[in-house]
Amino acid sequence: MAPNSLRPRLLTGDRPTGRLHLGHYVGSLANRVKLQHQYESFFIIADLHTLTTRPEPRHIKDIPLYVREIVLDYLAVGIDPQVSTIFIQSAIQETYQLNLLFEMLVSVTRLKRLPTLKDMARDAHLNAMPFGLLGYPVLQAVDILLPRANVVPVGKDNQAHVELAREMAHRFNNLYGETFPEPQALIGNVPTLVGIDGHQKMSKSLGNAIYLSDDKETVETKIKGMYTDPKRLRATDPGTVEGNPVFEYHDAFNPNLAEVDELKNRYQAGKVGDVEVKSKLTRAVNQLLEPFRERRAYYRAHPRLAQDILSEGIRRMQKEAHETMEIVKSATGLSYSTEMFVDEIDLFGEYGG
Length: 353
Ligand code: ATP
Ligand code: MG
Fold this sequence. Notes:
Blueprint: E1 9-14, H1 22-35, E2 40-45, H2 47-50, H3 57-60, H4 63-77, E3 84-88, H5 94-102, H6 108-112, H7 115-123, H8 131-134, H9 136-145, E4 151-154, H10 159-176, E5 184-187, H11 216-224, H12 245-253, H13 257-268, H14 274-301, H15 303-332, H16 338-343
Parallel strand pairs: 1-2, 2-3, 4-5
The protein binds adenosine-5'-triphosphate and magnesium ion.
């Protein structure tokens, strides 16, 4: 399909802070793969966003490694580079420009109301809130609106940020005329996947993730050690299914619904052991991941391909961002250039006699 067709647009992405995991898959990636032919799709690897909590050079040094892993994750799950654009945030100069303009469209009080920012500061062990972290969702609004995206497939934790981007687009349009679409969040099948620890959401930085790139044995070991009903001591004790992460995963990843139903019934009746429940889950997860592993291996063996996909994506996004900034400049009237002083603008003449 031609990249310049008039399909509605989609943007979403990830910070290069680690490899992608099952939570990313059910929260956002599955929707991306499904919608990429229907929407003109842009996938951002948001390296500038990592600076909000980790600006130190030793962390910046790790970014290229994670960019590589995330590009491979994207291609592995089936993002199709023939129709979709994959790019790196910091390669787009207009991001910095639009960010400054967008900072004027939101109040500090509004930003401080977002619980996500406090959580991020806490998780990163920051004792003060950096100005840039407060601006995290502002930068995210820039990412979404630079390609003028209509929909944003994200997990539940990001819904409030997309809502803010919507408000900012609305405010911009009110001030300067109809320029941006008002984007909408699209939440995945499982809005928040719990981690294998059963306590917090699965997250790259919490050590509770099953990665899309984990091999069979690693998946097996992780599922064996998964948190389950702590009150159940023997296979003959009736167990709780509700809120039990092992069954949440069965619901999310096991396509054999009859098997899941039957396991739940036996579990509640104290007629099945954890070993069987977990080994059936392992089989289901490995079945999902197997084709991802194959595609990943293919791209690993052809590094030039992934490299070209990324540089082509950057070029394509640079073009879009340039167009958007031209529209923004003309809408706001902030469009001076030296050439204009020579040819068009007579700024001081008006004073003259
Ligand atoms: P970090 O620990 O660095 O914050 P993360 O694992 O939380 O990493 P993000 O890069 O913050 O991942 O999130 C990328 C996208 O994946 C977002 O749309 C987010 O909502 C979604 N997502 C992340 N974790 C989950 C999860 N456990 N369940 C559902 N969606 C998720
Ligand atoms: Mg996160």
